[in-house]
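#struct-pred

JT: dropping the chains for the assembly here, can someone run the whole complex?
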Amino acid sequence: MKHLSPVNAKARRLQAALQPEDAPPAADVVALHTPQQPKGPHIPLGCSTVFAPGWEVDRSGGTAGLCQPVERDLFDCHLGCFWPAQVPDQLNHAPDWTKKCAAAQKDWRKLDIIFP
Amino acid sequence: MSAGVNVLQPGDCHAFESAGQRFLYLAPSAAVMAVDEVTAAVLDSVALRSRSSEEIMADLAERFPAEAVGESLDELVKVRALRRIDAPARRPPVVLPLTPVPLSTMVLNVTNQCNLSCSYCYEYGEDKIVQTDNGRQPKMMSEETARDSVDFLLRESGPEAHMTFFGGETLLNFRVLKTTVKYATEQAAAMGKTIDFSMTTNATLLTPEIIEFLAEHRFGVTISMDGPPDLQNKFRVFHNGAGSYDMMAPKVKALIATHRSRPIGARVTLTRETLDVRRIYEHLTNELGFWEVGFAPVTASPDRPHAFGDAGFEQVLDEFRSLAQDYLAAALEGRHHGFSNVRETLGEIHKGASKAWPCGAGFGLLGVSTAGDVALCHRFAGSDDHKLGTVTAGIDRTRQSEFLDTHHVSNKTDCQTCWARPLCAGGCYHEAHTRFGTTNQPNLHYCDWIRGWTDTCLQIYGQIAQLNPAFLQQFEDDHEAPQPS
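RK: done, full complex below.
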């Protein structure tokens, strides 16, 4: 760090911890198409390689590989653009899926996994 | 991407200035960082309202190269001194220590009786939580219970154990104290552990023999005392209402003159009626010779006449700040000053203590009642609601885990936005219990006082760190604290 100088013992530890590459917050959601993939642990989340309009599952039958950023751009994608891919079926199967998500930018982590 | 992504606001931190240098105290890491000119300008730019990084760069374009501003922004975000307004609030997970946590200090209430009748006393006054007069808890701890307690401590401790004798008035049960010290010393030696002793007393029952004993066993002695006669005699009275100053002061002098193996400290209870910090300090150090004096506002529910209201806490803060300047002046010259409230806070700042719990009560420190019940600390010893086991049966690990879980600072919603939480963590459980009726409520009545005092100590720390850093060596782990000569 160039602009902050550690004064107490904890500050020196913090500096040492930040010295290596810009590690992202542990286990955060990171898009597969992010140019520089972080070194630390993270949950890769990217477009499914196969477009399967199954809506609720990715190619492996799970939900980890659903279209990213499915949650953050939730309303843009499937409401604004009428692109209902890879979000749960909110008409029949999961009508309350976004109930706790008043503002997608802030609340997208509250969206729960839907099991088909 | 949506708008607002790069808009930044101050994160969890406290900016302060000391001797012309700007600093940041970061929460929850408790790191203290000195900031350079660019960073100071960046912080000023976002101090009043959230701004995007582009706006900040544009603001400072004439004063600093864009590259420097960019780096500074980057560093501030990394240490979480700035955060994006859309970043989800981080609440760190509640991580409990691996149990069993070694027991470091056991406070033994050798009696719940007292020869004084201090009107603000938490143990006997109107705010008491333990029914000491109904006979369920014996008045005096028996020798057998004390031995069981020693066995308990040495079973639960690491290689170093600390034993504190407490009361009531501790010396009312000096007989058991004496035999217990002997037993504990032998047992610790047999187990290859070290043990040391300390005690708190009102000093009225000290005799030359007792003083000799305390010196010989290197007791750390804390005297509860409120200051010169008019202040001491206001609350610290005998059962007939007579003040205790004349009885105890000569004994304190004798103790300090004879017991030279460890420094002797005074512990002052401040009330709204005895609020004269400087006069108390000067009397206790200059007249009586105490090496250190620590002050604590009285614990009382708000409707008691001696309890502090908001204005009272402000006055305490003003008085503390004034005396703290003397500490600073002494520290800059490398001299000792006995205002222990500053020393303790500086020690925590220097190490960067970031507390998940306000104190060690319930894990590193436990209180034992006269009957041998183990409780959170000495203030709760004997209370069934706060019992964590017994010295014979050991610690109830389920209750202990539940306690640590529910009292973790992450579960104190009010504390989540406070920069002082690494040092405060919600404050004393007993104070909370007295004020709000529950131990897991943060002590919201003195937040301003805690933040004000922490800010003062940070400024003092910043000044010492710049002008006389060698003074801070005493706070390193492997360094012995200065002693009276």
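JT: nice. Residues 105-400 of chain B form a domain with the TIM Barrel fold (CATH 3.20.20.70). The longest helix of chain B spans residues 310-332.
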